[in-house]
Amino acid sequence: MSIFSFVKPYRIPIAAALSLMLVELAVELIQPLLIAKIIDEGIVAKDLDTVIKWGGVMLGISLLAFVSGIANSFLAAHAGQSFGFDIRERLFSKVQSFSFTNFSHFSSSSLITRITNDVTQLQNTFFMSLRIALRAPLLVIGGIVMAMLVHVKLAMPFVIIIPPLLIFLIWIMTKAAGLFKSVQRRLDRVNGVMRENLVGMRLIKAFARGDYEGTRFEKSNDQLKNRTVFALRVTESTIPVLLLFMNLSVIVVLWFGKIDVQSGRVSVGEVVAIVNYAARITAAFSMFSWIIMVFSRSRASAERVMEVLNEGIDLEDTAGSQDGYEISAGEIEFDKVSFQFPNTNIPILDDLSFKISKGETVAVLGATGAGKTAMFQLIPRLYDVTSGEIRIDGRNIQELKLRSLREAIGYVPQESLLFTGSIKENLAWGKQNATEEELIEAAKDAQIHETIEKLPNQYDTLLGQKGVNLSGGQKQRLSIARALIKKPKILLLDDSTSALDLKTEAKLLLAIRNYDCTTVIITQKVSTAKDADKILLLEDGSLIGFGEHEHLLKSSSLYQEIYSSQFGEVKADW
Amino acid sequence: MVKIQKERHAGNQKSTIKGSGRTIRRIWSYLADERNLLILVLLMIVASSALGLLGPFLIGWGIDKYFATGSTDGFSLLLIGLAAVYVMHSLSLWFQSYWMIGIAQKTVYIMRRQLFSKFHQLSIDFFNKRQHGELMSRITNDIENVSTTLNSSVIQVFSSVLTLVGTLAVMIWLSPMLTLVTMIIVPLMFLGMKWITSRTGKLYKEQQGRLGEMNGYIEEIISGQKIIKSFSQEPQVIEEFRIKNQRLKESGYWAQTLTGFIPKLMNMLNNLSFTIVATVGGFFALKGYVTIGTIVIFSEYSRQFTRPLNDLSNQFNTLLSAVAGADRVFDIIDTEEEAVDEKGAVPLPNMIGKVEFKDVSFSYEKGGDTVSNLNFSAQPGETIALVGPTGAGKSTIINLISRFYEPEQGLILFDGHDSKKITRDSLRKQMGFVLQDSFLFQGSIRENIRYGRLDATDEEVVKAAKAANAHFFIHRLPKGYDTELSQDDAGISQGQRQLLSIARAILADPAILIMDEATSSIDTITELKIQEALQHLLKGRTSFIIAHRLNTIKNADQIIVIESGKIVEKGSHEELLAKKGFYHELYTSQLEKNILLKP
């Protein structure tokens, strides 16, 4: 696929816009004739009627050009904007189908630049092409043809000089495309530092590291500047070079012209005419080099856009995955599951096998970095297993449609990701058509209803990005409510009650018990874990214990250790 | 850096020609900083214009002299002279663009830098109310617009104006009367331009605004991918994007279409002017006011006169969108710095570590009360634990101590100094933070820990990591301390991130240590180990700790219990237990579970 496939749907408006442009061009070419007529037949002959007559004709055709120009504006803007619209949409949809491996190939800031900045670049170029770009080549070709019609031999210097100049232009264009690509890469970097600073502003302020960050930004800003300056200087050098060669060829024409005029083979008028055409070709050429700069920039942008569009998606519905199958029970089974993050060689999970029955509540405990979160992310297929198989209701999850798999799972990640919008909108992520009652019910179960009621606009209170205006605990409870409203068959809580006080947490967990779902909770607290039906102990990615609280307290030394870290010494005979 | 007068109302300013004029003047003030180079560019433009005219003139003269007569005396000299003119012409062109690119890029460089450092002077509140992506858009999309325009337009505008003035002078010299006639179109032109720009100016600002909005949306959606995927929200998100995309397209469509009118209109008026000159001129010639030769020359010049105007109008498209872009950049630069240090604030001397709250009240939204009448004091070296239900106001107290927000009423004293009379940076440099969201930068683990104290040696970094119990897992990573952390969290867990944040704070070696839920994602065994290290570390410094697991704060010197923004109890663990109040209730609720466990 190439960027040109986006042009295709607009063939008709493009053709129309170009024809209108040709009308304008034609009028422009006729005008000098009319002007000559007005001067020669009207003014010089002192014939005012002729002046008015031809003046009227001229106004008439310029009105025609005006109307064509206006129509061209509409068509070109329509085609250009739609072209940009289509590319942005395709890019965004593509990014939405990205797996996290795909995401690791592009930084967020680079993706953002590509969807906005690069597309704008392409869109502007496309718009420009429809309006003026075609003029330059037409004028150059027209100029050469006319010059050759006047006198083939005298026009020879142009015929000889123009092909190498064209080759030079193409060479510069290729070179410039590379340069502009590196400019865009540096823009990505500036964007990246910027984004980090915006996201981490609190920490930067807390550590009073404004100056340090300033230096860091300065560096990438400086590189961007230097690169841009270099790229622009290279491309803009083409104009003087082209002008020089064209002008020198004029000198050659004059030289031979002089000889030929003396020998009578050429008239003075012919020399004047050819010199005149040379001036026109030169003017068109300098337009050319501007066009080339714009095109090389766009070529760089086009490549960056296509990189995203041509990225192979490595996690999607597998061929032959059954449609319409819905998870009904919520039984989870890990069968010899091993996992490492894409592009790394650190094993995170190692040969994990266990089975959680329908409706059970299982607590997952383990040290920091034991692989608890990674294990969770495998269930809704945010990542795929490296080896082994995960089965839900006895079916390999890779055989299910991603959509039906994920719809059955209520996943509450460790960091509560909320979005700009009202509380209501955020909750409705779980269920688009949720009724007011359903919202309130979920909020009540998540122990957040009362807090929401106290807010000035209750459920219509607007949240900032990532829910910045809420406390940690409030965010956690909202994201739990968002998962509950789905009425999931499998509920995954990744340490999502850590910022809650114990009372609230206990009430929340009790409320969840009433849901008809299999619940898996990652927690650090034994007090939470002991209420679960079973406890799963992870250490360094391996399963080292799976059973009830009492059982583990007797059999597992790690569990004893965790227990004593929270409640003091456990007696040895337990 | 340029001094810019503050224009507070810039945010709501209407994008009229007047408003654009102000923005253009302001961009100009940046350029003026490079006055010397700019003068050189100007000289080069004058030179290239003159040389550009000299070439054809020499040819014309040469044709008259040599071709018409057949004389060859000095013909080769003429050609050499011509070659010299052409070489100089190219050189002057080359130099003007060479220098102009430098000036333009330096200008946008400064604008970027100003925007960036402005962001650092704005309050946390400012960022809470805005999307990161939308702000980012101003540094990329908007400044990019300014950059493109400065490169191409300035030279164009200069040379157009130069030609305009020159032609006008010749025209007036030839015939003031006919000049006047030619000028008839000028008011028409202005009317037309005004009609168009009064619309496009607004549209361009709107377009840039929508682009920014879209940027913000993309940023938020990309960073929230985990939720979007697990909730299968892709179709909805794509639909929402479609709406934003559509809105961008609409304003872009009208902006582009309308500015497309400008050159067409100019062309039209051009021809009108020519016809008028020819008719009126013809009439004058009949009456004998002017000679025919004058009209012929004049008709040529009137075209010359409108050509630069045409060029200028062609530049309008880019110019307008650049003005819109610059406007949005200036909007931010003009935003009031809420976090600026008060007048006469002095750096805080090295702290002993006493912190006092006197009748402090504060709310995030005017009129409400998030915390009220807080009174407490932390003696140097004390460990203060803040305890209370979710949303009681614990994090708010931390925000006040770190001066992310200022109290509405009351005083906060550091070593007896009123917080308002000391600079923020000097205060924060003596504080160490482990915040709820453990933010890590793109870079190696070593760099991330070193963020706590930039001049720390590698050994000190390792020592801090050991104290935070982070060394153990770092050591096992294939690249150890040089492991690069990317923005997405793959490979390193939330708990490990907290360990790194703790190491960072330990390295900072602050007089005041603030830990807001610093160990919430860390397993309890590791937490115990860290606590041992911390016990050691906390000695000699004042620390504020928020934790939900009450057993982690049992040893605190003072426990402050907060409920609904008010301090309800204060004292040591034992004292509070003896009181049998709110703390007792909280503590036993945890203990109950423990008791239940017993067979």
From TrEMBL, chain A:
It is found in: Cell membrane. It comes from the Bacteria. Keywords: ATP-binding, Cell membrane, Membrane, Nucleotide-binding, Transmembrane, Transmembrane helix, Transport. It is a multi-pass membrane protein. GO terms for molecular function: ABC-type oligopeptide transporter activity; ATP binding; ATP hydrolysis activity. Residues 332-565 form the ABC transporter domain. This is ABC transporter ATP-binding protein. The chain crosses the membrane at residues 12-34, 54-75, 132-152, 158-180, 237-257, 277-296. Residues 15-297 form the ABC transmembrane type-1 domain. Signal peptide: none annotated. It holds the Pfam family ABC_tran. InterPro entries: AAA+_ATPase (IPR003593), ABC1_TM_dom (IPR011527), ABC1_TM_sf (IPR036640), ABC_transporter-like_ATP-bd (IPR003439), ABC_transporter-like_CS (IPR017871), P-loop_NTPase (IPR027417), Type_1_exporter (IPR039421). One of its GO terms (cellular component) is plasma membrane. PANTHER family: ATP-BINDING CASSETTE SUB-FAMILY B MEMBER 10, MITOCHONDRIAL, ATP-DEPENDENT PERMEASE MDL1, MITOCHONDRIAL.
